[in-house]
Amino acid sequence: MKKALGSSWIAALTAVTLAGLAGCTHLAPSYERPAVPSTVVMSAEPAASSASANTTSAPLAWDALIRSPQLRPLVQQALANNRDVRVALLSVERARAQLGVVQADRYPTLGAGLSATRSPSLVTGKEVTLINAGVQFNAWELDFFGRIANLSEAAKAQLLATEAGRRSAELTLVAAVVTSYLNLAANIEQLAMAERALSSRSDTLKLTQLKADVGAATQLELVSAQSLVAQAQSAVAQLSRARAQELNNLSVLVGGPVPTDALPPVPSPERMDAAADAANATTDATDVGGLAEVPGGLSSEALLARPDVVQAEQALIAAHANIGAARAAFFPRITLTASAGQVANVFSDLLQPGHFAWTLSSQALMTIFDAGRNQSNLEIAKINREIAVAQYEKAVQNAFRDTADALAAQASWRDQRSAQELQLRATREIARLTDLRASRGAASELERQDAQRNLLAAEQALVQTRLAEQLNRLTLWKAMGGG
User: Fold this and answer.
1) Dist. CA 318–CA 41, nearest whole Å
2) Residue 165: CB partners within 8 Å, gap ≥ 6?
3) Residue 377's closest CA among 332, 334, 324, 312?
4) Model confidence at 420: pLDDT above 80
């Protein structure tokens, strides 16, 4: 009995030693991040100081970017309810479970069993019953050549890539919600302008009709007034449709109805008039969902932390690890099988001392001929790595291009908005003076109507310009990886 126990300890020690040696060989190529363009500072200012060139600031978080108290709850609601984000979260959980499955292969799977066999004895030829009860593990692979370790590393990289995909989905959702909200705010403001113009032009048409009835207005003036009313009616219908469609889009993004108190408010006429004043440039309805300034002095190294770039890099790391697993297929796979328990000829003896027994066996299998299957799998793994390299480089290039484009547009949109504000102030003054001259008979009704038409067009253009500036700011935030 003591001899049997001593032998079992030796066998167990041997198994532990072999397990400790497993995985010492790593056949995957060493990973090195592919070269990217030299580090530069992304700045919208042409003459960035050298001090700012060495500053690397973290991207703004979405709640720091969004200044609107109405918009923030909508973004939170979208992150909680959006189906795309939900799928991304479940994909992360699935990848985590798959990693657990792969990592479990590093350890033996223990099982308990009870078996009974009856067969003729090779010595006596009589029927013999053998009952075995105990624990065992079958075909536990000793990972000498790192096959399981590489597969585990690949699964871990896939998990990190999926997590980056989740962050990318959230970033895209936040940008979509903000874009929809800003578009809705612009539609509401433009609709208010069009309704105000329709009311004013309808009053003018009534007055012109009365003048035409008594011969004080020409048919051309009457038809022109009718045209302006129809133009305003068309604009109201178009903007009402756009408002309803954008509201539906926002509802889908947030995963439910948009609360009434979260909608952009309808601007008053006084507020719309103040939009022409540069000093009050942030009081228009579009800027109710206004965004904070995105810092331009961000090192290009920070772009490597963009979720899509991280996702591409983790896919590349997984491809490197898969090469190691493919190389390990050329070497023997060594497995252990062991069992320990009670053995007896009858059930009543299973619990009696002196019936303990154990077995330990190993197996080494190596492929001699497989018609090139292992070599082809290795070539596939290498090609997948080259594809992953190209996809990573493409992701980095897209990150640089998106950021550079948004930075280049930032200053120009600001200048265009200032010019549009000046134009609106000038157009409003022209409309005021023309209306004054027309009331004194120094200008025709056609001139006054033309001035009103130009005024509405200038007001609408300013709203669109401010919207475009805000959307470009959002694009820059997203291009820099958000937060």
Assistant:
1) 30
2) 88, 91, 307, 311
3) 324
4) yes
Separation between Cα atoms, residue 306 and residue 381, nearest integer Å: 26
- Residue 169 pLDDT > 90: yes
DSSP assignment of 177-216 equals: HHHHHHHHHHHHHHHHHHHHHHHHHHHHHHHHHHHHHTTS
In a domain, residue 457? The reply is yes
396-418 burial: b if 16+ Cβ within 10 Å, else e: bebbbebbeebbebbeebeebbe
Mean pLDDT over 330-337 rounds to 90
Q: What is the mean pLDDT of residues 207-226?
A: 87
Measured over the CA atoms of residue 296, residue 297, residue 300 and residue 301, the dihedral's sign is negative
Are 407 and 476 in contact, with CB atoms under 8 Å apart? yes
Residue 339 covered by a domain: no
Distance of CA 41 to the CA centre of its chain: 24
Query: Which tokens belong to 121?
Result: 């004895």
Domain that holds residue 431: 31-44+53-106+145-331+396-479
Rg (CA), the chain: 37
Q: What is the mean pLDDT of residues 61-73?
A: 87
Q: Is the pLDDT of residue 275 over 90?
A: no
Dmax (CA) for the chain in angstroms is 135
pLDDT score for 122: 67
pTM for this model (two decimals): 0.79
Are 220 and 226 spatial neighbours (Cβ–Cβ below 8 Å)?
A: no
Q: Is pLDDT above 80 for 183?
A: yes
Terminal CA-CA length for the chain: 67
Locate 82 and state its tokens.
Answer: 């959006």
Is 140 among the domain residues?
no
User: How many Å apart are CA 186 and CA 180, to the nearest integer?
Assistant: 10
Q: Tell me the C-alpha distance between 410 and 470, whole Å.
A: 9
Which amino acid appears at position 310 of this protein? Answer: V
Query: For the domain that residue 465 is a member of, what is the CATH number?
Result: 1.20.1600.10
Instruction: Kindly tell me if the per-residue pLDDT of 60 is higher than 90.
Output: no
Integer CA distances (angstroms), 54 to 48, 167, 393, in order: 11, 27, 25
Query: Residue 448: which of 110, 221, 233 has the closest Cα?
Result: 221
**Which residues contact residue 64 at a Cβ distance below 8 angstroms, ignoring those fewer than 6 apart?**
292, 483
State the total domains in the chain.
1
Please tell me the predicted confidence (pLDDT) of residue 58.
Answer: 63
390 is a domain residue: no
